[in-house]
Amino acid sequence: MNKKILYILLFIFIGWNYFIYGQARFPKPEFDSGYNYPEYQITEPISPVWEYIDVAVLLIVLTLTTRFTLKTRSRKSIILISAFSLLYFGFFREGCICSIGSIQNIALTLFNDGYTLPLSVLLFFLIPILFTIGYGRQFCAGACPLGAIQELTGIYPVKLPKTVETILSTVPYIYLVLSILFAATDSHFIICKYDPYVGIFRLNGPSTIMIFGILLLVSGVFINRPYCRFLCPYGVILNWVSRFSGKHLTITPDICTNCRLCETSCPYEAIIPSDLLQEKESMVKSRKKFIIYLILLPIITVGGIFFLQMFSENLAMVNQKVRLAKELRLEKENEIKAISIDAVTFKESGSTLEQLFLEEQQILERFRKGTPWAGGFLGLSLGLALLLTTINRKRDEYKPDQGKCYSCGRCFEYCPIHLEKLELK
After folding, report:
1. How far, in Å, CA of 378 to CA of 136, rounded?
2. Which residue has the higher pLDDT, 282 or 82?
3. Per-position DSSP letters for 101-123, written without gaps between them
4. pLDDT tens-digit profile of 313-346?
5. Contact 107/183 with Cβ under 8 angstroms?
6. CA–CA separation, 144 vs 146, rounded Å?
7. 400 secondary structure, DSSP code
8. Could you give the angle at which helices 102-111 and 233-242 cross, rounded to 10 degrees?
9. Which of 41, 44, 236, 421 is the residue whose CA sits 20 to 30 A from 202?
10. How many helices (H) and strands (E) does the chain have?
């Protein structure tokens, strides 16, 4: 593939934040604490009964996907169940209920007493995690509509340069931290706002998000699962949990013969090669790197704390009350007339500026308390990632990286032992 085309596709993908405006998929909870901001376009729920039908369908889909990946080892069956999930959870249920977006509901519930978490949302958050603990990322393989629409369009996979892959892989961690921070402070549901496929699922989304979703699908023809790999915050959680899964997908159904045929089969760089034929790093060099990264770990963590804390007030601007308070303060102090819809609505509501400014300070304080934790998490994650690169384990076979593997089954057809067993059947 022409490198220029690849870089153009990368530019389209990375630059989406600069022009995209979103649409929420979760209704903003109502509180009894004053002014209610009409920030989201909210789709009316079909019926609470459907939410539990969705839970039942999710359990069935995950069970079937687990069977197809571990028992029958059928890539075609995985594709079929993915297509069903796309039609049901995507187009029929219009992307709601969503396990990815449920992160925000969980955060909102933990840090706000005025919101009661629906049981169905809790189940959609927990069930995929429980399946991942047992069997790897089965949710990504067959149950997630966002993963399905990308898997079905990824027909010409191209591997990204290692440096680009590494840099883009840090974005989901930042996205996860910000989504929790903004939801916990009752500011925004950014996962829902910047969902690139909800407009396609609903066939009536804002033009910008529809355009971005289409562009992402086009780039996904070559850069497989771009959202899953470089944006999905729920994928970060599943990545961690999957590393401890009890029974995970294997490339071969028997003993690996190190034939190397599967070596380039995974577009997600999720195959760990055998090190029998590779030149190993000396123990002395590995130990030095380990000690250096171990020393850097607390430094990077503390650096992350102070760095994000510096931007706490900037991050708080995502909250509408903070933005409105700033606008009205400028009007009061500098006589710059506030003309936004929020400002006009606020004036007509009869609320007082004193109350608004008080709420603004409360929100800013919550951001000041939350950003150090968020920064510390990012710093710790980066430090641990560096530390883990120094740990070398002996590998005498090709195996999936249990964290990165989406259990899609692409590697099955590259294993001669797998093909031989299919012929025998």
Report:
1. 24
2. 82
3. THHHHHHHHHH-TT-PPPHHHHH
4. 999 999 999 999 998 888 888 877 878 888 888 8
5. yes
6. 5
7. E
8. 90
9. 236
10. 20, 2
Q: Which residue has the higher pLDDT, 284 or 169?
A: 169
- C-alpha 159/C-alpha 268 separation (Å) is 8
CA distance linking residue 265 with residue 190, whole number of Å: 34
Asked if residue 11 lies in contact with residue 181, where contact means CB atoms within 8 angstroms, the answer is no
DSSP 272: E
Give the residue among 100, 269, 112 at the shortest CA–CA distance from 193. 100
Q: Measured between alpha carbons, how far is 322 from 330 in angstroms, rounded to an integer?
A: 12
pLDDT of residue 110 exceeding 60: yes
User: How far is the CA of 158 from the CAs of 10, 66, 155, 207, 267, in angstroms?
Assistant: 12, 27, 10, 29, 7
User: In whole angstroms, what is the distance from residue 203 CA to residue 114 CA?
Assistant: 33
Per-residue pLDDT tens for 353-403?
A: 999 999 999 999 999 999 999 999 999 999 999 998 887 777 788 999 999
Domain ranges of the chain: 3-31+44-274+398-424, 283-388
Where do runs of H (alpha helix) occur along 95-197?
102-111, 119-135, 138, 145-153, 162-168, 171-184, 190-193
Contact present, 118 and 55 (Cβ < 8 Å): no
Nearest to 183 by CA among 133, 117, 275, 265: 117
Instruction: Determine contact, residues 37/349, Cβ cutoff 8 Å.
Output: no
Cβ neighbours of residue 6 closer than 8 Å, sequence gap 6 or more: 158, 160, 222, 223
Provide the token pair at 108. Answer: 């909102």
Cβ count near 353 (within 10 Å): 15
Name the least confident of 17-31, 47-61, 277-291: 17-31
pLDDT at 411 over 70: yes
Cα–Cα distance between 65 and 136 in angstroms, integer? 11
* Cβ contact 391:264 at 8 Å: no
How far is residue 180 CA from its own chain's centroid? 12
pLDDT, tens digit, 9 for 90 and up, residues 72-107: 999 999 999 999 999 999 999 988 878 999 999 999
Cα-Cα end-to-end distance for the chain: 38
CB 105 within 8 A of CB 374: no
Q: How much is the pTM?
A: 0.85
pLDDT band at 281 (very low <50, low <70, confident <90, very high): low
